[in-house]
Write a structure and sequence with these properties.
414 residues, mainly beta, Methylamine Dehydrogenase, Chain H, five-stranded antiparallel sheet, 1 helix, 3% helix, 43% strand, globular
């Protein structure tokens, strides 16, 4: 489904940059879910009009889905003609390779359609539609291998803004968060979709965060944030390893962050943030709670060199010390939105204006070196919605999206 607009721009992009090598950004927030790009040698400034465009695809469909990149393909989701789709593009050119059904339309006043990032593991890709249909498909051609409904099959309950989680693959299971009395988390066999375990010690409803995989005392565990608690489970059995209360309200969205024994979580709606130190035998010691320095609604937070960077409701963009929770600096000169880290720089996206800022990641203050406005922007986006898909930089390319428009820019300068 290539329009004349896409075809013309893609042709120019090919002439300018050639083909891409295979990339590795296989899931939400990257290989370890810390939102750090592996790229080095990126541009440290941009021209006034922004980095050079590689390609633009204007047919990816509606919704807020992000993108993963693996084996030269970009995977995302979109809503077209009432059908949610799992979609693969050629990462070098933006040409659509395949699209496969991934559940019925999810309707919402803030914008219809899917709102997660596909997860690629080997020759399979896993995606969850807004209504909670988990689809396992062949990464090669999009053939559906199995499906499982988080609601009708796994006993979950659809929340106010749909399912937004990006599933986590650990070994031979894919872990998701249906919520409900059978267990908040579920692990399914990646080959068959058969349920391997449920987190029977935690049975709260799902929220909007995605789980992470960490290692503590030499053993793996899966950490997830829900409305009123943050907890860790054994990825082999789902057995509860630890938990702690969290005072979430309305919606809990950002993904947890982990570093050197510290689990950090944050949420908007006035909640703030908290950090917990995991000790021997999975003991849990709060380092700080009810901290209002970082009230990240959505858009995420990145950890760089012991400091957290992200947008905090009311305060603007904030740098916060992880170990103490203290504010290092704050800045109100750029609008609320998402953040991504690559090669010493923060890539910040204003969810309303479409402005994209390149900012030094340092503790001395907001050091903006370049800014451009994303264009074109969607005219189909709900007035209540925003430009919510997060920036991703991989293989020298910056990917940005606003509904049906998927943008790709060359930030390597090659």
């Amino acid at each position: 489904m290539n329009s004349p607009l896409h075809s013309a721009i893609a042709a120019l992009g090919l002439l300018a940059t050639g083909s891409l090598a295979a990339a590795d950004w296989p899931q939400w927030r990257g290989p370890t879910r810390n939102d750090h790009s592996p790229d080095k040698g990126l541009l440290k400034s941009w021209p006034k009009d922004g980095p050079k465009r590689a390609w633009l695809y204007d047919g990816v469909g509606l919704g807020y889905a992000g993108y993963s990149v693996a084996d030269g393909k970009l995977f995302t989701m979109g809503l077209r003609e009432g059908q949610e789709l799992l979609i693969a593009l050629d990462a070098a050119t933006g040409k659509e390779l395949w699209a496969t059904p991934a559940g019925p339309r999810y309707p919402n006043n803030w914008g219809d359609g899917p709102r997660m990032t596909p997860t690629v593991a080997g020759d399979r890709v896993f995606a969850i539609g807004g209504q909670g249909l988990l689809v396992c498909a062949s990464a090669k051609d999009g053939k559906v291998l199995w499906t499982k409904s988080l609601v009708s099959d796994l006993g979950g309950k659809l929340q106010d803004w749909g399912y937004t989680e990006s599933p986590l693959v650990v070994g031979d299971v894919v872990i998701c968060t249906p919520g409900g009395s059978q267990g908040t988390l579920a692990a399914l066999d990646t080959q068959t979709g058969k349920v391997v375990w449920r987190s029977k010690d935690v049975t709260d409803n799902a929220q909007y965060s995605s789980p992470i995989l960490i290692s503590h005392e030499g053993k793996p565990q899966v950490v997830q944030l829900i409305m009123n608690k943050v907890f860790g489970v054994d990825p082999k059995s789902g057995a509860l390893l630890w938990k702690h209360d969290f005072p979430g309200r309305v919606a809990v969205i950002p993904t947890p962050i982990y570093s050197e024994g510290i689990v950090y979580v944050t949420a908007g709606y006035g909640v703030g943030c908290a950090a917990f130190k995991l000790g021997p035998g999975n003991s849990v010691e709060p380092l700080y709670q009810d901290n209002k320095v970082m009230k990240n609604h959505h858009g995420g937070v990145v950890l760089v060199g012991g400091h957290l960077y992200g947008h905090s409701d009311g305060a603007g963009w904030v740098c916060q010390e992880l170990a103490t929770g203290k504010e290092v600096w704050s800045h109100k000169g750029f609008g609320k939105g998402a953040v991504h880290y690559a090669d010493g720089m923060l890539y910040c996206l204003d969810e309303r204006s479409g402005d994209v800022a390149l900012v030094e990641a340092n503790t001395q203050g907001w050091k903006e070196v370049a800014r451009f406005k994303l264009a074109p922007l969607s005219e189909k986006r709900s007035r209540q919605g925003g430009i919510w898909p997060h920036p991703v930089v991989v293989n020298g390319r910056l990917y940005l999206r606003d509904q049906e428009y998927l943008h790709c820019f060359d930030v390597k300068g090659s």
